[in-house]
Amino acid sequence: MPYTENRYSIDEEINEESSDELDPLSLQLDPETQIIKNVMIVKTLEQILRGANLLQKYHHCLQSGSVADTFGISKAPDGFFVFVMRFYENGDLNQYIKNVNDISWKDKIDLLWGITAGLENIHRYNFYHGNLHGGNIMIEDESISTEGRIADIGINGSVDIPYNNNKLYGVIPYIAPEILLGENQSKEADIYSFGVIMWSLAAEQKPFAERAHDITLAMDICNGVRPKEIENTPKCFSDLMKRCWAFDPKQRPTAIELNEIFSDWITDICDNPAPTGISEEFNDAEERRCGSFQIQKNTSQEIQNKNAFYTSRFFDFSELREKFNNNNDN
């Protein structure tokens, strides 16, 4: 796509809780609003050739229906390639949870199924997301269903490219412990982040909202602290969620396995004429959810710590890594 300077501010359309990855400048092409995304800068021929191969893989990756719509690629005068992406009027998952008063278990599973489909597609092309959290799951609200679309898939999220673990970037509650401790980004770390998204939908809250998002929380996560248990959550859901945020990355399910599980759950909940153990678990949970709905809505609106941040930030956790290693050596 040709690059144009015909931009306009969307500050009024994107509030401070929106996806932190959106460039505050965008193009307006009727009838869709398009967001400009900086993805990489290339200067040498080697970088250009490698970038072209990456962009080709990336193009195929973005064709998934569970990934946020991308209209094209352009190159800005400063040398950055940019993606032109759709602006989702319904906002992100954090906004959806805050604004929607009644999210059934069927809708939660449906949303998560779509996210696993997107993750499976990303991982199939040997990419990882590297910064998956509620702020970059965009909501497609159709008349018959609500779907989650994964946005902000970093072009550097290829397992073929060395990861600079000295520059940690993300939202602390969603970052896998091994990444906090300096390991390379990976598909398994995406699965950990997905497990936290599962919790957020089950609880209809942001994770660790009551705590400051600092080195103390990061250390606790490395020591096994996870978001609190949610009452009336189906056991099968809780067990899968805990597998996703296992400390050992090898113990986490793959995106393929997750997609198959959520597909089977949707079939049992919606299409299977005979009751199954899974459908009964979710039906019981839905009855309890409806019975306590008003109480939950009156009491579950968490008071967010002033130092809890749900937009991505850069971190230097070299001190954390040193403390963690020293504690384990003693």
TrEMBL record:
<dbReference type="GO" id="GO:0007165">
    <property type="term" value="P:signal transduction"/>
</dbReference>
<dbReference type="InterPro" id="IPR011009">
    <property type="entry name" value="Kinase-like_dom_sf"/>
</dbReference>
<feature type="domain" description="Protein kinase">
    <location>
        <begin position="8"/>
        <end position="266"/>
    </location>
</feature>
<protein>
    <submittedName>
        <fullName>191_t:CDS:1</fullName>
    </submittedName>
</protein>
<dbReference type="GO" id="GO:0005524">
    <property type="term" value="F:ATP binding"/>
</dbReference>
<dbReference type="InterPro" id="IPR001245">
    <property type="entry name" value="Ser-Thr/Tyr_kinase_cat_dom"/>
</dbReference>
<dbReference type="GO" id="GO:0004672">
    <property type="term" value="F:protein kinase activity"/>
</dbReference>
<dbReference type="InterPro" id="IPR050167">
    <property type="entry name" value="Ser_Thr_protein_kinase"/>
</dbReference>
<dbReference type="InterPro" id="IPR000719">
    <property type="entry name" value="Prot_kinase_dom"/>
</dbReference>
<dbReference type="Pfam" id="PF07714">
    <property type="entry name" value="PK_Tyr_Ser-Thr"/>
</dbReference>
<dbReference type="GO" id="GO:0005737">
    <property type="term" value="C:cytoplasm"/>
</dbReference>
